[in-house]
Design brief:
The complex is a heteropentamer, with one copy of chain A (about 240 residues), one copy of chain B (about 220 residues), two copies of chain C (about 240 residues) and one copy of chain D (about 220 residues).
Chain A: H1 2-9, E1 11-17, E2 25-26, E3 32-33, H2 35-47, E4 50-56, H3 61-66, E5 72-77, H4 81-86, E6 88-94, E7 97-102, E8 118-122, H5 126-134, E9 140-144, H6 147-155, E10 161-165, H7 166-174, E11 182-189, E12 192-196, H8 201-217, H9 219-228
Parallel strand pairs in A: 1-4, 1-5, 8-9, 8-10
Antiparallel strand pairs in A: 2-3, 5-12, 6-12, 7-10, 7-11
Chain B: H1 6-42, H2 47-62, H3 65-78, H4 85-111, H5 114-122, H6 127-157, H7 169-180, H8 183-214
Helix pairs in contact in B: 1-2, 1-4, 1-6, 1-7, 1-8, 2-4, 3-4, 4-6, 5-6, 6-8, 7-8
Chain D: H1 9-48, H2 54-65, H3 69-79, H4 89-114, H5 118-126, H6 131-161, H7 173-184, H8 187-216
Helix pairs in contact in D: 1-4, 1-6, 1-7, 2-4, 3-4, 4-6, 5-6, 6-8, 7-8
Classes of the chains: A alpha/beta (about 240), B mainly alpha (about 220), C alpha/beta (about 240), D mainly alpha (about 220).
The structure holds adenosine-5'-triphosphate (2 copies) and magnesium ion (2 copies).
């Protein structure tokens, strides 16, 4: 069983993003840092094991789990029924509001107004699935391999708008990029969950316990303050 | 927020280049070993072994390296084999390089005059002895230039491992681009580093080829 | 029992029958010249005796052992019968000494010093002891062929097969190679040689085999065969020279 | 192994695959025609062209041959916009393939030109053709014929290399596999199907090129 | 004014002066044979006249126009002077007809039907009208050379340069090519030909030029030159035949 393996091994292997600030990005020393990384550390800490961070992309994080390359996916993973068929989800550990972002000059206040526009999104992410549902048929959706691609495409003007998390856009804005992603409208409130392999009740229970405890003792809120600059929403 | 200086960019890219070099070496050496085995199969007396090698080569030369990487990475896991990115990358590159090296070397072995096989046979040597003492030493001379030439393809092939998440030079390039918003500079530098790795190899391959053609001496 | 017994040997390439039933017995110490037009199957016959080609029918035995097509038997055969080629086929990456030592060390597992001693002795025999450390491409054609002979001799065969060993040589170099062969013959080596050197065949050989269209067309002592050819084909062939 | 293979998704997603194949085929068709044309031009420059152009073409060829296609692609798609040159992903992919094949075929074709007997150039000249006319009408076709097998292999290699254009969201065959994988989580099956399709494409492409060769080279011209 | 005026022409390859001051005037309709030892500069002279080599000193003019080393002048010159080579140099990827039509269409912009008509006429003249659709590798050497002549003629030159055009041919094929040249001469074509066919030179040519070490050593009517050579060099050269 997975929990047994982890304790036996003494390390917790966690899939984390490195292209998705503020959840995961790199510092000048190329070391991963962000909300998800802190979360991974917190869980490993509570399990009493070392953490091994495995950088993944949105597109490949679920195969990582399916092929048992990692124990947990803490990679701003959103929940939907398709995914629930193949993996299990913990309780939510972070808030996430998907929205469509674009420079000031692009006018769009609701999905219908994306008609004819070119929108970049990361393939396989919740934004991709949601946007595909709500956008009009003549919206051109460009699906990039990873968030690096999506963000680069937006910043280099290859797409007019991107669909991503509000905090992601905020993190980009904070770095004063050449193109400023401003929120046009939200498409989904899709909190982040930790992904686990199916049928590992012991591990799931343990992780949920840790999340609940972290919510209760304020350590999760501290992470939120550090990376998102706000308190955790109460409904999480 | 942290600011990257150009030096930070370059330093991080160069650090990642270590992986590119290591991965290239592993693929090239591993590919060489497997390629040698393929070569022996390819020129074996048994038809079944020959076709086995032929289909292997056909398969690996006929499908994208990228797909081979994907399958090594995601596929092997399904068989319960735990493959970290570096292992999948190394494995796929080794198998891929072996297909090309095996084929290059077969050409070189076939370029050795038929009389050499006959003379060594009539001296009582077995097939392996013929290969070991007579054919390979001559084929190796012919093989040096194209083999060095192919090493350039290997170095460039390692760039694809970025797509299965292995952080070598190319992946570092995308990650740094996203932390700096300077794609032109970053990809320009990445290209220059690759050029600095590959160009000496291609140049020496050309020089070797010319040398061997001009001085057609055999020792 | 003869040293080499060739019985009813046939060899085809695809539909093309190149040897059409060859019978030939060679006694120890005999020197046999094989002559005949281009394409008559002379090389093919030698190559079959050495196992470089597999025969389609018939049998070949050397010193009582059958020629069979597996590595063990082939190796045993080739230890008894050496072969020398028109194109020398020296190993270009080895020195002259290395050429002569290689198969002793690899095939017979002779230790290096013994192999070297043997190599020097054989090179001396062909008059090339001073070329021990030269590479093949530093030698003239005649010297190359003498090295090839030394290389074959170093394996101490009981018979030697020579396929037009002087045909690739400039005329002035032919005699130095033939001198070596003549000496071998005098020392009692069994020799089967395809040759166009009629004078040499007449002087040195004990028997002459005339091949024609894959058959042994005439056979006999050189005096008979050359002075008194029986068939119009041999007459015509000799008339060409 | 407790993994259950499942290919049911093929029915739902086959339009994606068909579209992916169409784009891959478009990429290589355009890439081959334009890339070989570019290669011919560059080979002409390097073998016979004006000397001021030679170093430029040489630099281009060396640069392309010694950097990965993926990086060339990123450079064109993500990098060039900061110089004000905005290309969509298909244009970028097309250009990257043309530029890539151009450099490789340049070297291959140049070898073919250099193997042309001198007498062919002289015969052209003595019939009052200019150097360029001689190249165009006398030298080119036999040169191409000489190196056609090598050139064909290179085209296949570039076709297989095109798998990375999915990285810039060009919806080629690899994109289709990745897309399906991200929706169905059937990574292994999706990649296997696309690998088989690539293999079939490679075999077909090889045959198509041989057929094209048969059309443009009516005779055993080269020697 | 002569048709071809060669004045004080010198040509060096590096330090090696191959033509050491050649003077030669050719009148319209003349047929000139150039003879001389190998290496005496015969080919070089022809190649200079056709602009395939640039001359180091002196001048060459054809029908009044100077030979200058730029594409426009060279083209004008080569439209006036055709050249035929020892090695035929047919274009292997084109049919016989294509070979003869190509330069008309490319250089003179002759429309295809007119070019084809001309090609057929010229091929008829050399007796190969039935080979219009054959490819060069289906022809014998003599046929190839006749196609080369037709190809040169199709450009309607006022003079033809022939460099040992029968030397690569088997003896039995030489006469079919010479017959064509003989006819051209009879029709008044100006011809400069390097040849080893002394009998042909004697029969057909109006003048013979003997070259020796890069100089015109003797020149004159064939009867004089062959019957009564003035210099020991020419005597020796003719003695060779
Ligand atoms: N490997 C082969 N495959 C097919 N046919 C062959 C092969 N080797 C030889 N032959 C044919 O066998 C016939 C006899 O050839 P062989 O070389 O024995 O003749 P030869 O008497 O040695 O002639 P030469 O004097 O020219 O060496 C020839 O018709 C030849 O074409
Ligand atoms: N491209 C070249 N570079 C250097 N030297 C050359 C070149 N072409 C010819 N030569 C030299 O010029 C000299 C004259 O050569 P040319 O070919 O004109 O002689 P030739 O009279 O035609 O002889 P042949 O009867 O053998 O054809 C020779 O010494 C030759 O070596
Ligand atoms: Mg023979
Ligand atoms: Mg000449």
């Amino acid at each position: 069983d997975a929990l047994g393996d982890i304790t036996a091994r003494g390390t917790l292997r966690v899939a984390v993003p490195q292209d998705f600030p503020p959840f995961g990005s790199v510092g000048v020393d190329m070391a991963p840092m962000g909300y998800d990384i802190d979360m991974a550390n917190l869980i490993a800490d509570k399990l009493g094991v070392k953490v091994e961070l495995v950088p993944v992309t949105s597109a490949n994080r679920i195969p990582y789990l399916q092929t048992n390359k990692v124990d947990l996916v803490i990679s701003s993973l959103g929940k939907n029924p398709d995914r629930e068929k193949v993996i299990d989800f913990s309780a939510a550990y972070a808030p996430f509001y998907n929205g469509v972002f674009a420079p000031a000059e692009l006018a769009a206040t609701k999905p219908e107004e994306l008609s004819g526009k070119m929108v970049g999104v990361t393939r396989g992410a919740v934004e991709d699935l949601e946007l595909t549902k709500v956008a009009p048929a003549d919206t051109v959706i460009k699906r990039y391999e990873d968030n690096n691609g999506t963000i680069s495409a937006f910043l280099s003007g290859q797409v007019e708008a991107v669909a991503t998390g509000n905090v992601v856009a905020a993190a980009i804005l904070a770095k004063n990029p050449p193109k400023r992603p401003e929120l046009k409208f939200l498409i989904k409130n899709s909190p982040c969950y930790i992904g686990l392999s199916k049928e590992q009740p012991a591990l799931l229970e343990k992780v949920n316990g840790i999340i609940a405890a972290a919510k209760a003792d304020g350590s999760l809120n501290a992470i939120s303050q550090k990376w998102l600059g706000t308190d955790l929403p109460t409904d999480l | 927020m942290i600011e990257f200086t150009t030096w930070d960019i370059l330093r991080n890219l160069l650090l990642a280049t270590r992986w590119t070099i290591l991965l290239s070496l592993v693929s090239f050496v591993g590919g060489g070993v497997v390629g040698l085995a393929l070569l022996f199969l390819r020129i074996s007396k048994r038809k079944s072994l020959r076709s086995l090698a032929k289909y292997y080569i056909e398969l690996f030369q006929g499908t994208p390296l990228l797909m081979q990487l994907f399958i090594a990475f995601f596929g092997l896991g399904l068989f319960g084999i735990d493959v970290p990115a570096w292992l999948a990358a190394g494995l796929a590159l080794i198998l891929w390089a072996a297909a090309f090296l095996g084929e290059i070397w077969r050409g070189c072995v076939e370029a050795v005059a038929k009389g050499q096989w006959e003379a060594s046979a009539s001296l009582g040597m077995g097939r392996l002895q013929q290969m070991r003492y007579v054919i390979l030493p001559q084929a190796m001379r012919i093989a040096v230039a194209p083999t060095v030439g192919f090493s350039v393809q290997v170095v460039k092939g390692t760039a694809l491992t970025s797509i299965i998440g292995f952080v070598e030079l190319s992946k570092a390039g995308t990650v740094v681009t996203n932390a700096t918003f300077q794609p032109f500079t970053v990809y320009g530098l990445v290209a220059l580093i690759y050029f600095a790795l590959c160009w000496p190899l291609s140049k020496s391959s050309q020089v070797l080829e010319r040398k061997l053609n001009v001085a057609h001496r055999n020792h | 029992m003869s040293l080499i017994e060739i019985t009813e040997v046939r060899k085809s390439y695809g539909m093309n029958e190149v040897l059409k039933g060859i019978d030939l017995d060679v006694e120890p110490g005999e020197v046999i010249a094989i002559i005949g037009k281009s394409g008559s199957g002379k090389s093919t016959l030698l190559r079959c005796i050495n196992g470089l080609e597999t025969i389609s029918k018939g049998s070949i035995s050397v010193a009582g052992a059958q020629l069979l097509d597996d590595e063990v038997h082939l190796k045993a055969l080739r230890l008894k019968v050496g072969m020398i080629f028109q194109q020398f086929n020296l190993f270009p990456h080895l020195t002259v000494g290395g050429n002569v030592m290689l198969s002793q060390m690899v095939v017979k597992k002779t230790p290096k010093p013994a192999a070297e001693e043997m190599a020097r002795k054989m090179l001396e025999r062909v008059g090339l002891e001073q070329k021990f450390d030269a590479y093949p491409d530093e030698l003239s054609g005649g010297q190359k062929q003498r090295v090839a002979i030394a290389r074959a001799l170093a394996m101490q065969p009981i018979a030697l097969l020579c396929d037009e060993i002087t045909s690739a040589l400039d005329p002035e170099l032919v005699s130095e190679v033939l001198a070596v062969v003549r000496e071998l013959a005098a020392e009692g080596m069994t020799l089967l040689m395809v040759t166009h050197e009629m004078k040499f065949a007449r002087d040195v050989c004990s028997r002459v085999v005339f091949m024609h269209q894959g058959r042994v067309h005439e056979i006999g002592a050189p005096d008979e065969v050359f002075a008194n050819p029986q068939t119009p084909e041999l007459k015509q062939f000799l008339g060409m020279h | 192994m407790n993994y259950q293979f499942e290919f049911g998704w093929l029915f739902e997603y086959y339009p994606q695959i068909v579209k992916g194949i169409a784009i891959t085929v478009e990429l290589i068709a355009v890439g081959a025609v334009a890339g070989i044309s570019l290669g011919i031009f560059c080979a002409w420059v390097r073998a016979l062209g004006p000397s001021w152009l030679k170093p430029i073409v040489a630099a281009y060829v060396e640069l392309i041959r010694n950097t990965p296609f993926l990086i060339q692609l990123f450079f064109i798609f993500f990098g060039l916009p900061s110089l004000g040159l905005q290309l969509d992903e298909l244009q970028a992919a097309n250009i990257a393939m043309i530029v890539n094949l151009g450099a490789y075929s340049c070297e291959i074709i140049r070898a073919g030109i250099q193997a042309t007997p001198r007498g062919q150039f002289e015969a052209g000249a003595s019939l009052a053709m200019t150097r360029f006319e001689t190249f165009r009408h006398v030298v080119l076709v036999p040169s191409l014929q000489r190196i056609w097998p090598a050139l064909s292999s290179q085209v296949v290699i570039v076709m297989l290399g095109s798998a990375v254009v999915s990285q810039i969201a060009a919806e080629d065959l690899t994109f289709a596999a990745n897309f399906i994988q991200s929706r169905t989580f059937r990574a292994f099956e999706a990649y296997m199907v696309s690998t088989i399709v690539y293999l079939a494409l490679a075999i077909l492409l090889r045959q198509a090129l041989a057929a094209v060769g048969g059309l443009i080279f009516p005779r055993r011209a080269a020697r």
